[in-house]
Write a structure and sequence with these properties.
Elements: H1 2-15, H2 22-28, H3 30-46, H4 50-64, E1 67-68, E2 73-74, E3 79-80, E4 87-88, E5 93-94, E6 99-100, E7 105-107, E8 120-121, E9 126-127, E10 132-134, E11 138-139, E12 144-145, E13 150-151, E14 159-162, E15 167-170, H5 178-182
Helix pairs in contact: 3-4
Organism: Microbacterium ginsengiterrae
Family: Belongs to the transferase hexapeptide repeat family.
Catalytic activity: L-serine + acetyl-CoA = O-acetyl-L-serine + CoA
């Protein structure tokens, strides 16, 4: 558990140029607090302690401004930068090394259907501020979703999604998004 917490703090420091030290990140970053609370909620959810899981997730939402349903599955080194207004639905799946900015929604289509209703983000996806990814779709590995985009269709690996509705294009040679996931000098 301690190793995972350290890994989370390191991931946040790599992605946020404003992070001055690990203690500051651990104590003052609501995105990390929401993720840590989600791990507790998800463990309770998996043990069919649904009321306790939801109560913990609602407390975390009140304290952080970030809503993560206890049923959502989240990978390692996930980071929510700024975080306010982020919503992650029950059947959402998030891979490793994913970065979300504030105001992102991983939402479900409105219907009475059960089963998979929320998106899957593969490893290395970056989602810009205010983007909405809706429905049981998959966003492929190392894809960048631009700020304010509305994504309702599957996206291939190594693509860039922009617009309303979002249009996908393959990354070009001059596109350099490598810093988005692993360095502190990113912008989106």
């Amino acid at each position: 558990m301690i190793a995972r917490i350290r890994e989370d703090i390191t991931a946040a420091r790599r992605r946020d140029p404003a992070a001055r030290n690990g203690l500051e990140v651990a104590l003052l970053y609501p995105g990390l607090h929401a993720i840590w609370a989600h791990r507790v909620s998800h463990a309770l959810w998996r043990r069919n302690l649904r009321f306790l899981a939801r109560a913990n997730s609602q407390l975390a939402r009140t304290l952080t401004g970030i809503e993560i349903h206890p049923g959502a599955r989240i990978g390692r080194r996930f980071f929510i930068d700024h975080g306010s207004g982020v919503v992650i639905g029950e059947t959402a799946e998030i891979g490793d090394d994913v970065l979300l900015y504030h105001g992102v929604t991983l939402g479900g289509r409105t219907s009475d259907a059960t089963g998979k209703r929320h998106p899957t983000l593969a490893d290395g996806v970056v989602v810009g501020a205010g983007a909405k990814i809706i429905g049981p779709i998959t966003v492929g590995p190392d894809t960048v979703v631009g700020a304010g985009a509305v994504v309702t269709k599957d996206a291939p690996a190594n693509s860039v999604l922009t617009g309303v509705p979002a249009h996908s294009r393959t990354r070009r040679e001059h596109d350099d998004f490598s810093d988005l996931r692993l360095a502190s000098d990113y912008s989106i």
